[in-house]
Structures are given as C-alpha cells and as structure tokens.
Amino acid sequence: MSLPDMKWSGIIEAYRDFLPVSEKTPVVTLHEGGTPLLPAPRLAAALGIQSDLYLKYEGLNPTGSFKDRGMTLAISKAKEEGAEKVICASTGNTSASAAAYGTRGGMKVYVLIPKGKIALGKLAQALMHHSGILQVEGNFDAALKLVTEVSQRYPVTLVNSINPYRLQGQKTAAFEVCDQLGAAPSYHFLPVGNAGNITAYWMGYREYREKGKTAVLPKMMGFQAAGAAPIVLGKIVEKPSTIATAIRIGNPASWHQAVAAAAESKGLIDMVTDEEIIAAYHMIAGFEGVFCEPASAAGVAGLAKLSKQGLFNKGEQIVCTLTGHGLKDADFCLQSSQKPAEIVKSKSDLLKALGF
Ligand code: F0G
C-alpha cells in the first residue's frame, strides 16, 4: 500500500476542491469513503455477462452505508453554522449515520423512523450513539414530511438528502469510481429509494467530465422494489411494501432529479421483485464473498434481469453500488437462508459433512 492510501482521512480532505467547504469549515469525519471497487468475475459468469463487472462496496463505510459520505459534509456544515440539534427521517441507514456523525460533532441528534420497519442493526446504531429515537406509525414518507416542516420553523437542522450538502458529499462516490477505473464505466447500477443517491452519482460524473477527469459518462441504471416503485409507475405509492426496508419509500424527495439522471444518461429506472432482490442478495454473497443488505442488491437484481436480454458486451465496464453492509440486517439473512447449521456429534459426523 502506498503512503497516500494509508493517509486517507475522508472524502472532504480527498475531494476538498469539489466541495462547498472552506478553511473555516470544521471537518467532522470518521474517514468515510475510499471504499473498494471489487472486480466480480464469478458473479459476472453466473449472470452470463461478458463485460467487466465491479462492485462498489459502500457497506465498508464507517457506519456501514453510503450515507456517511453525505453525512460528513452535512454535519460539518451544520457545525460551521452553529447548529446544536439535527434531525432526520429514515428507513435506518440515514439515522445510523446521522447519529454517529452528529455525536462526533457534539450535537444532539433526533431520528424519526417508521415503527417496526427498520433493520435491527440500524436501530442498534442509533441507540449506541445516544440519539433521540422517535417512531411514526406511518411510513418513511410521513416521517420525512414531519421533520421537514419542523426544521423549517425551529432551530434544528435537517440532514436528510433534501439538505443539499448531503448530495454534494455523496457525489464523491462517482469521483472514486472514475479514479479507480481510470474513467467512468459504461453502466452504473444502483438501488433507488428516496432517489438521492442516483442524483448524486450523476452530478458527480458530470462534474468530473467537466473537469476533464473522465471523457465518457455512464448510463445510470436505477432500480426500485416492485412494491415501492413510484417512479416506475409514475404515481405516489401510498402503502409501499418490500422486504428491502431501506428502499420502502412511496414518494421520493429527489424524484424529478432521478428521472432526469436516467433520461440524460440514456439509462433507465425500472423495478425488481422482492424475489429477484433476494436471489441477487444471495448470489453476491455466495459468488463473491461480499455481504450486502437486501436493498443494496436491487441494482444487481436489475442487472440480472437485463442480462437476459443480452444487452452487455465484452469491453464494457459495469459498476454496481452495494449501498449497505449485510450485517445491518442479520435477521433477514437468517430468515432467507435455506440451510440451518448441522449438528456435529462425532468426528465421523464432521468427516461426513466435509465430504471425506
Ligand atoms: N440502499 C440503502 C442501503 C439505503 O439505506 C437507501 C436509502 C438506498 C439504497 C436508497 O438510496 O434514498 O438515495 O435512493 N436509505 C434512506 C435512509 C432512505 O433513510 O437510510 P436513495
């Protein structure tokens, strides 16, 4: 490893020239970003894809999801502006990230989550970082509406992705992909929930091209869960439903920007069923040794769906962002795995299990 790699100290230091910060901005960081872009040849072969396939493993961020990229900036700017309280609505990952970064910045964090619909690991993170955990009986959309209204009238800073600093931070993932590949890929697949991340990636790729860092731009390929696919259906989904709780959203905040990203890049926004998401989730872990949470597999599920149409060619690069770590939702993993552990009572049982 070279010395610059070992000195990685987060996305604000790495991409300062591209971000709305000054020397006066107090940087609140857990050294997020710098995540690996892993070649995935076994997964590509299993999907029958000739192109080079890569996984941008965002589960390796400090709180286990891509949200940390946006949160370091949103919290640093909130601190610069003197905020004492921050708030967000969340399906789990934003709250985990806000809790960690807000605490590190010396602020009080409040998170509003849909009751019973967030993965336990994420709830544990918000608890551990001493945030005020509040629940709504409704869904994420209702929670977001509430926190938006309150933050407009009271001295509490909203750190959902409608806070523009969030997407500014998240766009650095696109910079990293270009820096790691040497140019933007042909296709970029990712899950779509509140639609901030696809918006941020597209902003990042375009900025990098304007600065001459990549000559090409990728097609942006976003995937919603079929039970929570307002953008695909063209209308708000009042009661979104999917096992991929992170993207259980019926009225995304960045809806129009996401549609624009897909249209401008000649990509698409489509949907995948829960069965397709679960199949992809197991394939990623089973073929590549990479464990992501169910929602994170929606992009790969989309790739699997389109690969049947023979769209992808040799010489093209495909990047799939895996947005969050699998350990966030260990419950779901155990529920959806077919095989319980075998009991071993003797050496002969063990030898039999090993196939000897
Ligand atoms: N994947 C994961 C693991 C997520 O947590 C989210 C969003 C997405 C994908 C979708 O990203 O919203 O930018 O389109 N989670 C938010 C949250 C909503 O509250 O943690 P998006």
Please, could you describe this protein's structure?
- The chain has helices spanning 3-6, 11-14, 41-47, 67-80, 93-104, 120-128, 140-153, 164-170, 172-181, 196-210, 230-233, 255-264, 274-288, 298-307, 330-336, 347-353, and strands at residues 37-39, 52-57, 85-89, 108-114, 132-136, 157-158, 187-191, 219-225, 268-272, 317-322.
- The chain is α/β, with parallel strands linked by helices and 356 residues long.
- The two termini are 40 Å apart.
- The model has no long low-confidence stretch (mean pLDDT 96).
- Residues 65, 67, 90-94, 191-197, 246-247, 293, 295-296, 323-324 line the site of ligand F0G.
Summary, kept brief:
This protein is of the alpha/beta class and about 350 residues long. A 6-stranded mixed beta sheet has the order 1-2-10-7-8-9, with helices on both faces. Strands 5-4-3-6 form a 4-stranded parallel beta sheet.
Can you lay out the helices and strands and say which pair or pack?
Layout: H1 3-6, H2 11-14, E1 37-39, H3 41-47, E2 52-57, H4 67-80, E3 85-89, H5 93-104, E4 108-114, H6 120-128, E5 132-136, H7 140-153, E6 157-158, H8 164-170, H9 172-181, E7 187-191, H10 196-210, E8 219-225, H11 230-233, H12 255-264, E9 268-272, H13 274-288, H14 298-307, E10 317-322, H15 330-336, H16 347-353
Parallel strand pairs: 2-10, 3-4, 3-6, 4-5, 7-8, 7-10, 8-9
Antiparallel strand pairs: 1-2
The structure holds ligand F0G.
Please provide the count of β strands.
Answer: 10
- Can you summarize the main beta sheet? 6 strands, mixed
Q: DSSP strand (E) fraction?
A: 5-15%
Low-confidence stretches: none
Strand order of the largest sheet: 1-2-10-7-8-9
Overall shape: globular
Evaluate the radius of gyration.
Answer: 20 Å
Structural class by helix and strand composition: alpha/beta
Q: Could you say which small molecules are bound to this protein? A: ligand F0G
